[in-house]
Amino acid sequence: xxxDVNTSSAGRRAIPENPANNLAIAGIRLPVWNKILxxxxxxxxxxxxFFLEDFDVFQMTYALVFAMAILGLNLLTGFNGQFSLGHxxxxxxxxxxxxxxxxxxxxxxYWTIIPAGIVCLVAGFLFGLPALRLEGLYLALATFAxxxxxxxxxxxxxxxxxxxxVQGLDLDxxxxxFPDTLSxxxxxxxxxxxxxxxxxxxxxxxxxxxTGRAMIAIRDNPIAAQTMGVNNAVYKSLxxxxxxxxxxxxxxxxxxxxxxxxxxxxxxxxxxxxxxxxVVGGVASIPGAIFGGFFxxxxxxxxxxxxxxxxxxxxxxxSWAVYGLFLIITVYVMPSGAAGLVRLLVGxxxxxx
Amino acid sequence: xxxxxxxxxxxxxxxxxxxxxxxxxxMIYQAIDHFNFAQGEMAMFxxxxxWQMMQWGMPFWLVFPVCVVISFAGGVxxxxxxxxxxxxxxxxxxxxVFIALFSIFNSLAGFIWEFTIKPFPSPFPEKxxxxxxxxxxxxxxxxxxxxxxxxxxxxxxxxxxxxxAMRAAAANPVSARLVGISVKWMLSLGWGLAAAIGAVAGMLxxxxxxxxxxxxxxxxxYGFAGAVVGGLTSPGGxxxxxxxxxxxxxxxxxxxxxxxxxxxxxxxxxxxxxxxRPAGLFGRVVVNRV
Lengths: 353, 290
What we know:
By secondary structure, chain A is mostly helical. Chain A is 69% helix and 3% strand. In chain A, helix 3 runs antiparallel to helix 4.
């Protein structure tokens, strides 16, 4: 079977166009059972932290951060057909924006999220402008170069006073305003959850609307899209900007929850992580990004289990091999990722029933 | 002046390695129209294999050819097993599989041989060349071995029937198949050659950058820069581009930007050339029919 991860069918089949049983929630029209599913997920997401250890809550928070970053990459790759191996750079820019504002200007963390997003929007837009001239593969190369060069740029001595150079920056942990009911980790979890929900609703509306149709049209056939009056240049660079904005906000949140930024956290391997989440979760699938986020966070645990079987204590390296295996397996046997698999199963069941 | 000469010569030595990587990248690019993002990690893995054999007590000049042969076989196997089945898949699938190979090789090397930095012995004596200290013996050896290898590759493609068949398969697969060339096997052969060239590059640069799983990432980036500068459609151009990038990087590092932003230099070079002159210095302009 030839893998075809970039087909147009991916993002569309999820919602049957039957207005009779569709109601609007926050502008989203969904079939009833989808709404029930989302409601259950939300309830679980709200209740879960009260039943988990602080470390598990932290892990869930970080999975949500990854989900946001993967969603950003998905807007670019899945819905607009542009590749990026350099989203670790935007994640890093977002994280550093937040860290520098908090460390040097003592801004409260919630005021840094939007500036981090805007800085990344501009950075992404500026990088997206020349990227217009670069088709698929060349864009992958240019962004690969960006990801590889980023740690060096962050370490550069000329702005060492701002960035903290090789050492990076330490931040204070935001404290819960209700220490009796919410621990600090739970508090951060809910902040991240709210931001994630807002970003996911925005993304959903974006790809369902006029802009989203233009993005998808450019992905499927740029020449046809241009002929139909879509301004490819504007949409492609804007998509790059918005994608960077999402990833930058995710980076900003990561700086807050880890309370630390350092250049070597934002290497090419981080970009690979996003790519793994994107592919395994499902290209051009918005819920897939959530699955992808949890997947990339849980894989290190699995690889540690594998490493235990070999009797080695350090499994640090092995998780990347497991990522790689999953990437290849996904490309070969389920090219539309976990989201595609779910769609396939649901479709089969629906036909039988 | 002496400083300038020194920097230029050591730039040429690094450039020899970039030229090898650029050549390997271009060979695969010509065969299947894709960038092998795993090229550097494959070379790194080959170098680790060489290191392991030396740990077992084999001398360098025995390890060198054995490692090249193993890498060649490895390249053929990777093409047969992994890339054969997805030959017609879209670009994204290919990029994903290359990235998958990248992370598999990187982490396997770390898992088997650990992430600690290891010294890699140089086969060349540590004495001055012709009484000057302009260039180290190892750097001279790097340039020498690379040049010998390039001449051999040139002769192979120019004067042997298999070389001709490989060129035909890359230039026009359909016609090549019609005259009885097994395009499949030519692709595998190309992969094998690319892996072997990468192994040579890895073994030559390892004494200078030390052996560790991430040693080739920057070098791969320079290799890409060399390939892009020279032209992705021209193997000779890629080699020239590699040397050029090596010298330019070293001189820019010595006089302009310092050693801290060398990778950024490669980034600017790649993006700049892709934007201003996508065909590179020696490549031909490819026109797509729509």
